[in-house]
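cache lookup: miss for this entity combination. No prior model stored, computing from scratch. Input as submitted by user K.M.:
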Amino acid sequence: MNLQKISSLPLPLAVLKIAGETFRSILRRKFSFREVMVQTYEFGVGSFGIICLCVTFVGIIMMLEYSYHMKLVIQNDSMIPSFAMIMLARELAPAITALLITSKMGASLASELAAMKTTEQLDAYRLLGLNPIDLFVSPRVIASAVSNFLLSMISLFLSVVGGLFAAVTVLSFSTGSFFQGLFLFVDVWDFVLCGTKAVFFGASIPIISATLGFRCGFGAEGVGLSTTDAVVANSIWIIILDFILTYAFSPLLS
Amino acid sequence: MKALNAGLETLGEHIQFLMTVLKTSFRERFESREFIIQLAQVGWRSLPTTLTAGMFTGAIMAVQFHLQLKDFGAETTLGGLATSGTLREVGPILIAFMLAGKVGAFTSAELGTMKVTDQIEAIRCLGVNPLAFLVVPRFYAVIISSILLLAFGLVISVTGGILAAWASAGLSPEQYLLMIPQYTTGSAVGLAVIKSVVFGALMGHICCANGYWTSGGTQGVGRAVRTTAVQSMVSIVLGDFVVSWIYNGLSRGP
């Protein structure tokens, strides 16, 4: 891997180059399995609390907002849980989980690699014949994809629990009528879309963060800037990819 | 228990910092020149991010609402419902997430770099209060520019919705726009404005506090950026919940 070349390429090309090298390293099994386990623990457990907290509240709000909107068009309360559940499964559970993981783990990977580059540790690794991509990027790509998938499923569950709470306390649903309404329109494809989004978001977070970490300029200023850029580039990419996947899946969804 | 303690401690530190900043801003001379420079810089730098975020948020909401309304033959109401849904709920939260990465993280990286390279101490040595000179103008500049950017992003999201409705549902822009006044009430616009103000204030405070508290050299700057991103996202979700809950309670009447 040539660090100077990565710094001089335009950002999309540099990301593609790092992505290509990461997949080559994954296919050739050049990463340590132990590191994958450690990183899965870091990604999963490290962001678990925050994600649980945020997503439960998002579930409550979505339930309230959907009841407001659907009452405008359809004078039928019983379908509201299902609409809210579809929206959470298709959009908000994967997107919000991925955005939170970006701000926590994506930013920390970028700042770690950027600090390594300014203190010339990356050059030292290359001098020893070790490829930083095998060491830092490819284990995290797998770990992040796996843990993002699991966390998205957990957050989908928790947001539905939040929705149940809002429906029972504010919208005078009974628990039974909530669950009766919950699966009216929900389809297997909604869960497939949720899982696909989570895996794609998860795999792209470490690649983009690592590219920006490798491109870091020197000094404290460089580290701050590349961490900021990693958060921004990741969030923008997540929302664009979200739209692309929604659009691609829309013929399959009801 | 330990996590709860740490959380409460952080909250207390934030409140103390807020009190200090407010006190300084009333006691010392307001640096209006610095304020205007920051306002222009922060606003200008974040325009592309806001544009992309707003565009795609609107488009995603339009595609999703289209899929759900299709079954009821209520496709013509798409414009009104998608706009109302974006303005009231999903728009502010997603665009604020992007801005937390862009505006918040950038400002805290800048302040953090100044802190670890001892520039803040140097300013103090010159007999100038660094809080009044550096933090107070940034604090207000970030708050005001986030409010303006959020509002701008929400306006752009309507454009995104129009494009997506035209591409996926075959609705002409006129049909889309005609429905907006029917379903997007004044209360939706009011809620969007209130949320913009609340999120802007949260972001402005959190990024200045974390930037000012930075310690520990190069890695400290990375850590400050990360903490800013995480804290702003969590507080945005919680703030969103509180505002929606109160607003819904008020608009429903006692």
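stored under new cache key. Chain B has a mean pLDDT of 86.
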